[in-house]
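Q: What does the predicted 3D structure of Protein ACTIVITY OF BC1 COMPLEX KINASE 1, chloroplastic look like?
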Amino acid sequence: MEGICTSCLYSSITPSIEYKSRRKLLNTIQKSRSLSTRICAVSSVSTVQTPSEKTALLVKDISRTSALEQLDIERGVCIPFRKYSPESVRNKVLESRGQIFSLVGRGIEIVWSLGLYWTTLVYDYLVGRDEEVVPFRARQLRKLLCDLGPSFIKAGQVLANRPDIIREDYMNELCILQDDVPAFPNQVAFNIIEEELGQPLEAVFSKISSETIAAASLGQVYRATLRASGEEVAIKVLRPQIEPIIYRDLFLFRTLASFLNGISLQKLGCNAELIVDEFGEKLLEELDYTLEARNIEDFLENFKDDPTVKIPRVYRQLSGSRVLVMEWIDGIRCTDPQAIRDEGIDIDGFLTVGVSAALRQLLEFGLFHGDPHPGNIFAMRDGRIAYVDFGNVAVLSQQNKQILIDAVVHAVNEDYAEMANDFTRLGFLASGTDVAPIVPALEAIWQNSLEKGLADFNFRSVTGKFNQLVYNYPIRIPERFSLVIRSLLTQEGICLTLEPDFKFLEVAYPYVAKRLLTDPNPALRERLIQVLFKDGLFQWKRLENLISLAKENVTKLSKNPAFQGNNRGTRKHLKNEQKLDLTDTIKDGARLFIIDEGIRRQLLLALTEDSKLHIQEVVDVYRLLEDQIDVPSMALEVAQDLPSVARDILLSWSSSVLSDRSDR
């Protein structure tokens, strides 16, 4: 296997595996790193002293590895059936003389338009009015991007979440950039639907809306009724001839980016072509509705046992690459709090469901909705939260999820140097970057937020400070994390619309606490231990806080009307959600206490530190848990696990004996 990287191995052995199966297989391969011995990573440059030497070495290293390979490395995943690659884009736009002429004409248009705008910025700087005209120039940029078409609209929406590339005042203006484009004619859309179906509209639909429900730069949506079943469906139709336009613009983007690599390496620690590749990859995914159908099916699979989340069903037999038919969601817009209350839905309970669903996507599934604006999230009349539009989703590998949890643990423990290292491991900083100057800035941001207290903490204020840090240091925000940031900010905004006094972290932190206490994942068990021990001392108060917050999460969730359903699955889930399921946690804790000498010593010291027995702390913890656990049942569970524990003790003892003998 030598000389074969995980990405290449994965690509070569999975030529026909569906999306969900491919993701599961990837996790298996990632856990078996020994299959691959070649390390596909940019070499460390920690010994380079001068910026010019560092840039030169980065250019040399990056030239050995394509931008897409770098993305796969930092993501911890790879995509074996890539719709986007620089080579495929180039081949498509240069395959005929007519396309070449079109490319040249479009290139002149782009260079002329952007050149004129750049000239005005230079003039403003020379006459000393660059700061005072920023609002006007930001509006100019937004209008310019709209005029240049769908590729630039999408690029502007990406830039609205990239403080590493543009300054905050321009970002704020681009945040209002919408896919506000005229709908294309109904007859053109209906012809596309018939081509994909292979039969007349009337044969499949008994009714279809005469006007579009929504129109965007890449497609538009109609409402219809299936003739066979009478079910209401949404039909999403791709804009005609959009793909050649997107390919042409992506080729020009990448060509222009090649001239900016030197600047990008100095400012962001990566070349500009990598940023274009990230953008192009996501954009071309949105042009293929078969990928969106797979996304919907993945979300359905992830939330199949969660009675609080509604994901629309996709009609595969009626869908194709240009048409997507899915279940119609008849819900209440999340910007109308009164309508939600009128349906008898508890706002706090609904918000808890929404935040928990978002955090499950991010930290549990690693597949999350990248565009949860108010038009894509609805409140169902039974209290569930519903998502639509799955064209823009992002995947976080198991490795990335674990690093994110590490970052949370390091933040709790106020270990800012390790937080900075987490940024490098996630791809925010180039490998080998000296994190020392960034550590004090991270500490200042986090301490300032903590001083305000949990009640006044909000993502927007923290993100504003983080944006300044990103703009001042060579930090790049990877595309998937720009989507994470946008997703969290958007959902916090929706929450504040429904409840002006809502505190996102007051819901998010209890979810994280519950996850740390109840998730059987060994990696999370390790993080729980890291949270509970600081400088070798057991944090009794922190354990009490975790239990209290986790119980709070359970209480808020159980208020949601979605839990009051009459079907068996809902009743079972309600029973599970009314109490903290700490069975596995306690069993694992007992196992660790018996087997792990280091943990055993630390816990015994925790009970006797400061020359006194900490009986009261144990009693306080028990009082918090006494209504959550059935002690006899729990004791029976632990007793049943004793044979397995005894086996592990014997294996550990025999391993130590063999190790001692080999040392002699």
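A (community wiki): The structure tokens above were generated from the sequence. The CA atoms of residues 420 and 435 lie 6 Å apart. DSSP finds 31 helices and 13 strands in the chain.
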